[in-house]
Design a protein that fits this description.
By secondary structure, this protein is of the alpha+beta class. The protein has 2 domains: 117 residues, Rossmann fold, CATH 3.40.50.10330; 153 residues, Tumour Suppressor Smad4 (Sandwich). It has 8 helices and 16 strands. A 6-stranded antiparallel beta sheet has the order 6-5-16-13-8-9. A 6-stranded antiparallel beta sheet has the order 12-11-10-7-14-15. The chain has a 4-stranded parallel beta sheet with strand order 2-1-3-4, with helices on both faces. A hairpin with a 2-residue loop joins strand 8 and strand 9. The structure holds adenosine-5'-triphosphate (ATP). The site of adenosine-5'-triphosphate has 23 residues, from helix 3. Adenosine-5'-triphosphate binds next to helix 3.
Protein backbone atom coordinates (compact mmCIF):
# COMPACT_ATOMS: atom_id res chain seq x y z
CA UNK A 1 0.00 0.00 0.00
CA UNK A 2 1.28 3.50 -0.86
CA UNK A 3 2.27 5.61 2.14
CA UNK A 4 -0.37 8.14 3.12
CA UNK A 5 0.37 11.72 2.12
CA UNK A 6 0.13 14.16 5.02
CA UNK A 7 -2.10 17.23 4.79
CA UNK A 8 -2.30 19.81 7.56
CA UNK A 9 -5.17 22.25 8.12
CA UNK A 10 -4.36 25.34 10.19
CA UNK A 11 -7.45 27.01 11.66
CA UNK A 12 -7.59 30.49 13.16
CA UNK A 13 -10.48 30.21 15.65
CA UNK A 14 -10.94 33.99 15.71
CA UNK A 15 -10.86 34.95 12.05
CA UNK A 16 -13.77 36.57 10.27
CA UNK A 17 -17.32 36.44 11.53
CA UNK A 18 -17.74 32.66 11.07
CA UNK A 19 -19.23 30.99 14.16
CA UNK A 20 -17.49 28.28 16.17
CA UNK A 21 -20.11 25.78 14.89
CA UNK A 22 -19.31 26.65 11.26
CA UNK A 23 -15.59 26.25 11.93
CA UNK A 24 -16.27 22.85 13.54
CA UNK A 25 -18.17 21.83 10.40
CA UNK A 26 -15.28 22.95 8.17
CA UNK A 27 -12.89 20.93 10.34
CA UNK A 28 -15.05 17.79 10.18
CA UNK A 29 -15.50 18.17 6.41
CA UNK A 30 -11.74 18.51 5.98
CA UNK A 31 -11.02 15.36 8.01
CA UNK A 32 -13.70 13.31 6.25
CA UNK A 33 -12.84 14.39 2.68
CA UNK A 34 -9.08 14.12 3.22
CA UNK A 35 -9.40 10.57 4.55
CA UNK A 36 -11.72 9.64 1.67
CA UNK A 37 -9.09 10.90 -0.78
CA UNK A 38 -6.33 8.84 0.86
CA UNK A 39 -4.56 11.61 2.79
CA UNK A 40 -3.41 11.45 6.40
CA UNK A 41 -5.07 14.64 7.72
CA UNK A 42 -3.94 16.72 10.72
CA UNK A 43 -5.60 19.78 12.24
CA UNK A 44 -3.91 22.55 14.25
CA UNK A 45 -5.73 25.48 15.86
CA UNK A 46 -3.78 28.71 16.27
CA UNK A 47 -3.43 30.03 19.81
CA UNK A 48 -1.58 33.30 19.17
CA UNK A 49 -0.50 35.70 16.41
CA UNK A 50 2.37 34.18 14.43
CA UNK A 51 1.38 30.63 15.39
CA UNK A 52 0.29 29.76 11.83
CA UNK A 53 3.81 30.58 10.61
CA UNK A 54 5.36 28.29 13.24
CA UNK A 55 2.97 25.44 12.39
CA UNK A 56 3.50 25.81 8.64
CA UNK A 57 7.30 26.01 9.00
CA UNK A 58 7.26 22.77 11.00
CA UNK A 59 5.08 21.14 8.34
CA UNK A 60 7.63 22.09 5.65
CA UNK A 61 10.43 20.51 7.71
CA UNK A 62 8.37 17.32 8.05
CA UNK A 63 7.78 17.16 4.29
CA UNK A 64 4.00 17.73 4.47
CA UNK A 65 2.75 18.19 0.88
CA UNK A 66 -0.29 20.38 1.46
CA UNK A 67 -1.05 22.95 4.15
CA UNK A 68 -4.53 24.45 4.23
CA UNK A 69 -4.99 27.86 5.85
CA UNK A 70 -8.53 28.24 7.22
CA UNK A 71 -8.89 31.92 8.04
CA UNK A 72 -8.76 35.43 6.65
CA UNK A 73 -5.97 37.10 4.69
CA UNK A 74 -3.96 37.51 7.92
CA UNK A 75 -3.92 33.77 8.60
CA UNK A 76 -3.24 33.03 4.95
CA UNK A 77 -0.32 35.46 5.05
CA UNK A 78 1.13 33.87 8.21
CA UNK A 79 0.81 30.36 6.75
CA UNK A 80 2.04 31.22 3.26
CA UNK A 81 5.15 33.02 4.47
CA UNK A 82 6.54 29.75 5.86
CA UNK A 83 5.76 27.89 2.61
CA UNK A 84 7.65 30.29 0.33
CA UNK A 85 10.33 28.61 -1.77
CA UNK A 86 9.35 25.17 -0.49
CA UNK A 87 7.71 22.15 -2.14
CA UNK A 88 4.74 22.43 0.24
CA UNK A 89 1.66 23.91 -1.42
CA UNK A 90 -0.87 26.26 0.19
CA UNK A 91 -4.59 25.54 0.18
CA UNK A 92 -6.80 28.56 0.81
CA UNK A 93 -10.03 28.13 2.78
CA UNK A 94 -11.41 31.66 3.09
CA UNK A 95 -13.38 32.52 6.22
CA UNK A 96 -12.16 36.09 6.67
CA UNK A 97 -14.03 39.30 6.12
CA UNK A 98 -12.26 40.36 2.91
CA UNK A 99 -10.66 37.23 1.39
CA UNK A 100 -8.65 39.20 -1.17
CA UNK A 101 -6.25 36.44 -2.20
CA UNK A 102 -9.01 33.83 -2.47
CA UNK A 103 -11.14 36.15 -4.59
CA UNK A 104 -8.24 37.08 -6.86
CA UNK A 105 -7.43 33.40 -7.43
CA UNK A 106 -11.10 32.42 -7.89
CA UNK A 107 -10.98 30.09 -4.90
CA UNK A 108 -14.57 29.15 -3.94
CA UNK A 109 -15.85 31.41 -1.16
CA UNK A 110 -17.88 28.56 0.33
CA UNK A 111 -15.31 27.12 2.78
CA UNK A 112 -16.60 23.56 2.40
CA UNK A 113 -16.15 23.72 -1.38
CA UNK A 114 -12.75 25.39 -0.89
CA UNK A 115 -11.62 22.48 1.32
CA UNK A 116 -12.42 20.06 -1.50
CA UNK A 117 -10.64 22.29 -4.03
CA UNK A 118 -7.51 22.42 -1.84
CA UNK A 119 -7.48 18.64 -1.45
CA UNK A 120 -8.07 17.85 -5.13
CA UNK A 121 -6.31 20.88 -6.66
CA UNK A 122 -2.97 21.01 -8.43
CA UNK A 123 -0.09 23.25 -7.27
CA UNK A 124 0.20 26.44 -9.31
CA UNK A 125 3.14 28.81 -8.82
CA UNK A 126 2.53 32.47 -7.92
CA UNK A 127 4.66 35.46 -6.86
CA UNK A 128 4.90 36.91 -3.38
CA UNK A 129 6.48 40.15 -2.19
CA UNK A 130 8.06 41.85 0.82
CA UNK A 131 7.96 45.29 2.38
CA UNK A 132 10.95 45.80 4.70
CA UNK A 133 11.14 42.02 4.97
CA UNK A 134 7.43 41.61 5.87
CA UNK A 135 5.95 39.12 3.39
CA UNK A 136 2.76 39.86 1.51
CA UNK A 137 0.74 37.97 -1.05
CA UNK A 138 -2.17 40.27 -1.79
CA UNK A 139 -1.41 43.98 -1.28
CA UNK A 140 0.69 46.23 0.92
CA UNK A 141 0.24 49.96 1.03
CA UNK A 142 0.35 53.31 2.72
CA UNK A 143 -1.70 56.48 2.83
CA UNK A 144 -5.48 56.22 3.21
CA UNK A 145 -5.67 52.42 3.05
CA UNK A 146 -3.08 52.08 5.83
CA UNK A 147 -4.93 54.70 7.89
CA UNK A 148 -8.14 52.66 7.54
CA UNK A 149 -6.35 49.40 8.43
CA UNK A 150 -5.04 51.01 11.65
CA UNK A 151 -8.46 52.44 12.55
CA UNK A 152 -10.22 49.15 11.73
CA UNK A 153 -7.85 47.20 14.01
CA UNK A 154 -9.10 49.26 16.95
CA UNK A 155 -12.77 48.44 16.40
CA UNK A 156 -14.33 45.95 18.84
CA UNK A 157 -16.34 44.23 16.07
CA UNK A 158 -14.90 43.00 12.73
CA UNK A 159 -16.70 42.28 9.46
CA UNK A 160 -17.67 44.24 6.37
CA UNK A 161 -20.23 46.65 7.95
CA UNK A 162 -17.64 47.79 10.52
CA UNK A 163 -15.07 48.17 7.75
CA UNK A 164 -17.39 50.37 5.68
CA UNK A 165 -18.23 52.57 8.70
CA UNK A 166 -14.53 52.88 9.58
CA UNK A 167 -13.56 53.78 5.99
CA UNK A 168 -16.33 56.38 5.75
CA UNK A 169 -15.25 58.09 9.00
CA UNK A 170 -11.59 57.86 7.96
CA UNK A 171 -12.30 59.54 4.63
CA UNK A 172 -13.30 62.78 6.38
CA UNK A 173 -10.41 62.66 8.87
CA UNK A 174 -7.60 61.70 6.50
CA UNK A 175 -5.26 64.21 4.79
CA UNK A 176 -3.11 63.16 1.78
CA UNK A 177 0.54 62.53 2.65
CA UNK A 178 3.86 63.31 0.97
CA UNK A 179 5.96 60.34 -0.13
CA UNK A 180 9.27 60.17 -1.97
CA UNK A 181 8.98 57.24 -4.35
CA UNK A 182 12.24 56.17 -5.98
CA UNK A 183 13.56 59.70 -5.42
CA UNK A 184 10.49 61.59 -6.68
CA UNK A 185 8.30 63.43 -4.20
CA UNK A 186 4.50 63.38 -4.58
CA UNK A 187 1.46 64.11 -2.46
CA UNK A 188 -0.82 61.08 -2.58
CA UNK A 189 -4.13 59.92 -1.20
CA UNK A 190 -2.89 56.33 -1.25
CA UNK A 191 -0.06 54.20 -2.54
CA UNK A 192 -0.49 50.47 -3.10
CA UNK A 193 1.85 47.68 -4.12
CA UNK A 194 -0.40 45.00 -5.53
CA UNK A 195 0.60 41.37 -6.06
CA UNK A 196 -3.07 40.37 -6.27
CA UNK A 197 -5.41 42.93 -7.79
CA UNK A 198 -7.75 43.54 -4.88
CA UNK A 199 -7.81 44.36 -1.16
CA UNK A 200 -10.68 41.95 -0.55
CA UNK A 201 -14.46 42.20 -0.94
CA UNK A 202 -13.87 42.79 -4.66
CA UNK A 203 -12.30 46.20 -4.06
CA UNK A 204 -9.97 46.22 -7.07
CA UNK A 205 -7.11 48.72 -6.70
CA UNK A 206 -5.09 47.08 -9.51
CA UNK A 207 -7.61 45.65 -11.96
CA UNK A 208 -4.95 44.28 -14.31
CA UNK A 209 -2.53 42.84 -11.72
CA UNK A 210 -1.15 39.44 -12.68
CA UNK A 211 -0.08 37.40 -9.65
CA UNK A 212 2.42 35.32 -11.59
CA UNK A 213 4.17 37.85 -13.85
CA UNK A 214 7.15 38.61 -11.59
CA UNK A 215 5.92 42.21 -11.13
CA UNK A 216 3.97 44.28 -8.61
CA UNK A 217 1.50 46.95 -9.71
CA UNK A 218 2.50 50.24 -8.08
CA UNK A 219 -0.82 52.12 -7.85
CA UNK A 220 -1.14 55.74 -6.81
CA UNK A 221 -4.35 57.59 -6.02
CA UNK A 222 -3.70 61.30 -6.41
CA UNK A 223 -5.58 63.82 -4.23
CA UNK A 224 -9.13 64.39 -5.46
CA UNK A 225 -12.07 66.65 -4.57
CA UNK A 226 -14.64 65.18 -2.13
CA UNK A 227 -17.27 65.09 -4.88
CA UNK A 228 -15.15 62.57 -6.84
CA UNK A 229 -15.21 60.04 -3.95
CA UNK A 230 -18.46 58.35 -4.98
CA UNK A 231 -17.26 57.77 -8.55
CA UNK A 232 -13.88 56.46 -7.35
CA UNK A 233 -15.62 54.07 -4.95
CA UNK A 234 -17.89 52.88 -7.75
CA UNK A 235 -14.85 52.32 -9.98
CA UNK A 236 -13.03 50.47 -7.18
CA UNK A 237 -15.79 47.86 -7.00
CA UNK A 238 -16.52 47.97 -10.73
CA UNK A 239 -12.91 46.93 -11.48
CA UNK A 240 -12.36 50.10 -13.52
CA UNK A 241 -10.32 52.30 -11.15
CA UNK A 242 -7.48 52.33 -13.68
CA UNK A 243 -9.74 54.38 -15.99
CA UNK A 244 -9.84 57.23 -13.44
CA UNK A 245 -7.62 60.27 -14.01
CA UNK A 246 -6.72 60.17 -10.27
CA UNK A 247 -5.24 56.66 -10.60
CA UNK A 248 -1.72 56.02 -11.89
CA UNK A 249 -0.19 52.57 -12.12
CA UNK A 250 2.92 50.88 -13.36
CA UNK A 251 4.51 47.44 -13.06
CA UNK A 252 7.63 47.35 -10.88
CA UNK A 253 9.97 44.72 -9.45
CA UNK A 254 11.05 46.91 -6.55
CA UNK A 255 10.54 50.39 -5.10
CA UNK A 256 11.79 52.56 -2.27
CA UNK A 257 9.34 54.85 -0.46
CA UNK A 258 10.47 57.51 2.01
CA UNK A 259 8.40 59.75 4.27
CA UNK A 260 9.14 62.50 6.77
CA UNK A 261 8.28 60.28 9.77
CA UNK A 262 7.62 56.66 10.70
CA UNK A 263 5.64 54.99 7.92
CA UNK A 264 2.14 53.78 8.69
CA UNK A 265 1.49 50.82 6.38
CA UNK A 266 -0.66 47.75 6.01
CA UNK A 267 0.51 44.34 4.91
CA UNK A 268 -2.31 42.19 3.48
CA UNK A 269 -4.69 44.37 5.50
CA UNK A 270 -2.86 44.02 8.83
CA UNK A 271 -1.70 47.39 10.27
CA UNK A 272 2.00 47.97 10.87
CA UNK A 273 4.28 50.92 11.74
CA UNK A 274 7.73 51.01 10.15
CA UNK A 275 9.94 52.72 12.73
CA UNK A 276 12.34 54.11 10.14
CA UNK A 277 11.04 56.54 7.52
CA UNK A 278 11.74 54.23 4.62
CA UNK A 279 10.10 51.20 2.99
CA UNK A 280 11.85 48.80 0.63
CA UNK A 281 9.41 46.85 -1.48
CA UNK A 282 10.39 43.94 -3.71
CA UNK A 283 8.81 41.09 -5.60
CA UNK A 284 9.82 37.46 -5.03
CA UNK A 285 8.92 35.92 -8.38
CA UNK A 286 7.51 32.36 -8.51
CA UNK A 287 7.94 31.85 -4.76
CA UNK A 288 4.74 30.06 -3.65
CA UNK A 289 2.76 27.01 -4.70
CA UNK A 290 -1.00 27.39 -4.34
CA UNK A 291 -3.50 24.55 -4.75
CA UNK A 292 -6.02 25.57 -7.43
N1 LIG B 1 -5.63 32.36 18.75
C1 LIG B 1 -5.38 33.60 18.33
N2 LIG B 1 -5.53 34.65 19.16
C2 LIG B 1 -5.30 35.92 18.74
N3 LIG B 1 -4.91 36.23 17.49
C3 LIG B 1 -4.76 35.22 16.61
C4 LIG B 1 -4.98 33.86 16.99
N4 LIG B 1 -4.74 33.10 15.90
C5 LIG B 1 -4.38 33.94 14.90
N5 LIG B 1 -4.40 35.21 15.32
C6 LIG B 1 -4.11 36.44 14.55
O1 LIG B 1 -5.33 36.90 13.95
C7 LIG B 1 -4.97 37.71 12.84
C8 LIG B 1 -6.16 37.96 11.93
O2 LIG B 1 -6.59 36.76 11.39
P1 LIG B 1 -7.39 36.65 10.02
O3 LIG B 1 -6.86 37.55 8.99
O4 LIG B 1 -7.45 35.21 9.70
O5 LIG B 1 -8.84 37.06 10.43
P2 LIG B 1 -9.62 38.40 10.16
O6 LIG B 1 -8.70 39.54 10.44
O7 LIG B 1 -10.87 38.33 10.92
O8 LIG B 1 -9.94 38.30 8.64
P3 LIG B 1 -9.74 39.42 7.56
O9 LIG B 1 -8.25 39.63 7.45
O10 LIG B 1 -10.33 38.87 6.32
O11 LIG B 1 -10.46 40.62 8.10
C9 LIG B 1 -3.83 36.93 12.21
O12 LIG B 1 -2.96 37.78 11.51
C10 LIG B 1 -3.14 36.25 13.42
O13 LIG B 1 -1.94 36.90 13.77
Amino acid sequence: MASLSAVLAIINPLSGTTSAEQKALIRETFLRKAEALGFAPEVAVTTHPGHATELAAHAVLRGVNRVLAIGGDGTINETAQALRRSATALGIVPVGSGNGLARHLNVPLNPLVAVERALRGQPVVIDSAEINGHPFFCTAGMGFEAYVAHEFAQQPVRGLPTYIKTAFRAFWAYKPERFIIDGQERELFSLTFANAGQFGNNAWMAPKANIADGRLEQCEIHPFPAQAAAMLTWRLFNKSLDASSYWRGKAVMKAVVEASGPLRIHVDGEPLMLPDNKADIRILPSSLLVLL
